[in-house]
Design brief:
Number of strands: 0
CATH superfamily: ABC transporter involved in vitamin B12 uptake, BtuC
CATH architecture: Orthogonal Bundle
Helix content: over 70%
Radius of gyration: 20 Å
CATH class: Mainly Alpha
Number of helices: 13
CATH topology: ABC transporter involved in vitamin B12 uptake, BtuC
């Protein structure tokens, strides 16, 4: 049983956890800045750019996908400005039109192309392919100490590990600027903290995290993890560092429990087939947020103040 777990489930759980933690770390600042839907927007805009990059290069390599996502983001900005000026509508409506249109274009492009031969199709774009990330050469827990076996791990694991390290490095390097610009942008500007540049850097890191996790976990987990664990953590504390630790714990819990319930849960209730790991992980993150909203310390404090 232990050997089967290492071969079939260890890599998907680790990959899902790394993606979830990376998104949650950045999501804390998105939530505090009231920019929670930036992750959603980036995942929508990035899809057509990623598909075009994959079709042109014939590979799922990270850098072509990131370049494609970046080009799609530039096109999105230009289109938003064009729609806003020509249509004379407010920026929020222009953003909604462009984001949904580009995402729909990416879906159509996937359906009409042969990207499925590269394991990229509509299903993978939405749900990822966690279930297929099997460590074939593993022979048990001892494989974790076998250099030859480690070289055959799914490439998504080292990729997401590098991205997570980059996210942590970014947060440590610009911690003071991020905190100041998040809570008081005017004060940060007066101190020379350049809140605009720091905000742009945050968005760039969000895009990198989303694209790096895209082919492994799909857009559903990415969107959920940018929002749900940080929002749940915010309901547990009003201090930033504890909030970050809470969000990491919630993201890890959602990734592990979601994958286990998706793979093994249906069998516990007599069903023959498993369910989508990405969908279950996103569902668990939503349930964690619901529990925090109902029973979290800050929620209870708000209720007591209202009753007083």
């Amino acid at each position: 049983m232990g050997d089967d777990f290492v071969i079939l489930s260890l890599m998907p759980i680790l990959i899902g956890s790394l993606a979830s933690i990376g998104c949650a770390l950045l999501g804390n600042f998105l939530v505090l800045r009231r920019q929670s839907l930036v992750g959603d927007a980036i995942s929508h805009v990035a899809l057509p750019g990623i598909v075009v990059a994959v079709l042109l290069t014939g590979t799922l390599s990270t850098w072509p996908m990131m370049l494609g996502a970046g080009a799609a983001a530039i096109v999105a900005v230009l289109l938003i400005e064009l729609v806003r000026r020509v249509g004379r509508i407010e920026p929020g409506a222009a953003m909604g039109v462009v984001f949904t249109t580009l995402f729909a274009a990416g879906v159509l492009l996937l359906e009409q192309s042969d990207a499925s031969t590269l394991h990229l199709d509509v299903e993978h774009a939405l749900y990822g392919n966690l279930e297929s990330l099997i460590w074939f050469s593993a022979s048990g827990w001892s494989s974790l100490f076998d250099p030859q076996a480690l070289l055959t791990m799914p490439e998504q694991l080292p990729r997401l590990l590098v991205v997570l390290v980059a996210i942590i490095a970014f947060l440590l390097m610009f911690w003071k600027e991020l905190v100041l610009s998040t809570f008081d942008a005017a004060f940060a500007q007066s101190l020379g903290a350049r809140p605009g540049a720091v905000g742009l850097g945050l968005i760039v890191m969000v895009a990198i995290a989303a694209v790096a996790a895209f082919d492994a976990v799909g857009s559903i987990i990415v969107i959920a993890m940018f929002i749900c664990p940080p929002a749940a953590a915010r309901l547990m504390t009003d201090r930033l560092m504890p909030q970050i630790w809470w969000s990491v714990a919630f993201a890890t819990l959602a990734a592990i429990s979601g994958y286990v319930l998706a793979g093994y849960g249906p069998g516990w209730f007599g069903f023959d087939y498993s369910v989508s790991a990405a969908g279950m992980i996103a569902t668990m993150s939503g349930l964690i947020l619901m529990v925090a909203a109902c029973f979290g310390p800050r929620r209870r404090g708000t209720k007591l103040m209202a009753q007083a």
